[in-house]
Amino acid sequence: MFSLGSRKNQEKVRRFMSRFINQGSMARIKVPDQGRIENRVDMNVGVWVAPMLNRRPDVDRAFRAITKNFTTSGVGLFVDHDVPFESVLVRLVSEDQAMFLRCDVVDSTSLGSNFYLIGLKVDDIVPSSDFSELEKLENLLNEYQTVE
Asked: What is this structure's pTM?
């Protein structure tokens, strides 16, 4: 896991996530029985996820997911397979700009029929320039969108 989230990084993450959440639906739901501090905002957005292996994104193993909900410090994802990684990068588009969120995988709940709800804690916003692999992922996504 990456526990590099300094107070400055946490504030940067919270500002970005707050702006993103405010762009979408504000149908807030409380989940007090699970001991959660923050409200969840239900918002379904298609994202790309790249596992982090040896502190580098493995874009060859990138996969698509659908978000379930957001908080100012986390994201819930629906996926069609278990995610056996400690951390991932999530590509999220906000205000016509792609951002990569470095996240720790904190929960994986089987929903049956090979679907999972994955809980992520967002640690930092990672510029694509930090990893040459992310440029490769962007190129693959551009090709993918062109084919559709």
From this structure: 0.74
